[in-house]
Design goal:
about 0% strand, mainly alpha, flat, single chain, 2 helices
Length: about 70
């Protein structure tokens, strides 16, 4: 996680693990309440949207494919 400006990989990994453990139970309860299919459709639409946004905002990469 170089973008977080933290020098210790152990600290960043620990933060990620704590967030994962804390949010697992609410995620399970949410899936049981709303159902898996609507959650999957909403999640895939959100992922598609953010990937499109990040893809259009990132600099274009050109490849020199001369052999």
């Amino acid at each position: 996680m170089e973008g977080a400006q933290m020098a210790s990989p152990l600290a960043t990994a620990s933060i990620q693990y704590v967030i994962n453990v804390v949010l697992t139970l609410p995620a399970i309860l949410f899936l049981d309440k709303w159902g898996r299919r609507p959650s999957l459709i909403l999640g895939s639409f959100g992922m598609m949207t953010w990937l499109f946004i990040s893809g259009t905002r990132s600099p274009s990469i050109t490849y020199n494919l001369t052999y």
